[in-house]
């Protein structure tokens, strides 16, 4: 079991950038004192901005600060327990996406919020996805359809990592040309990381006001 790359590369630029992007898009859905369930807590570097939360992960190594070891497809909580449920880069790991989304809906209270992020575009599929244990990548339309089928009502959906999309395209192309299985993350030179962080910060500022039309991730907020 390789587990989440964040277990080994917590300071990688993508986790830093994603934390800022997730915070920008989803913070408006968090009210003071809300009960939060965070599914997939192995990606802790990206969710430090969340308030005190109940952490769930299928990999015990992602629960070093405490939490519950369980699958997103079988959450061990009663119906309508939480005000908010988050699953950031989780649903693509679930063989049964409908069951995972239905479970997230089930454990939030009526009117509660489910916050999601998933990787975008099946045509970006590569050895990175295989090694990470993905079953699929998404378009915004596909995620909307799956969430609606689970009984969720959309509040916001947008692409993210828009300005860095050319970098993802190039890295996937090089991986395929080299016929490499790919690593989930690879260290980058400092100037490259700083450039990518600056581009991601451009996304962050745009996302404060608008949804973005393309990107390597999809962010989605919905209510039960």
Q: What is the gist of this entry?
A:
The protein is of the alpha/beta class. The protein is built from six helices and seven strands; from the N terminus they run αββββαβααβααβ.
* Count of alpha and pi helical runs: 6
Number of strands: 7
Give the fraction of residues assigned to helices: 25-40%
CATH H-level homologous superfamily name: Vaccinia Virus protein VP39
Give the number of domains: 1
Strand content: 15-25%
Strand order of the largest sheet: 3-2-1-4-5-7-6
Regarding CATH, which class? Alpha Beta
Low-confidence stretches: none
Q: What form results from the Cα inertia axes?
A: globular
Q: What's the order of the H and E elements?
A: HEEEEHEHHEHHE
Largest sheet composition: 7 strands, mixed
Our Rg estimate from Cα atoms comes to 17 Å
CATH architecture: 3-Layer(aba) Sandwich
Comma- or semicolon-separated keywords:
224 residues; alpha/beta; Rossmann fold; seven-stranded mixed β-sheet; 6 helices; 7 strands; 32% helix; 20% strand
What does this structure look like?
There is one protein chain. This protein is an alpha/beta fold. The chain has one domain (5-223): 3-Layer(aba) Sandwich (Rossmann fold), CATH 3.40.50.150. The chain is 32% helix and 20% strand. The protein has a seven-stranded mixed sheet with strand order 3-2-1-4-5-7-6, sandwiched between helices. The longest helix is centred in the last third of the chain and has 18 residues, at 190-207.
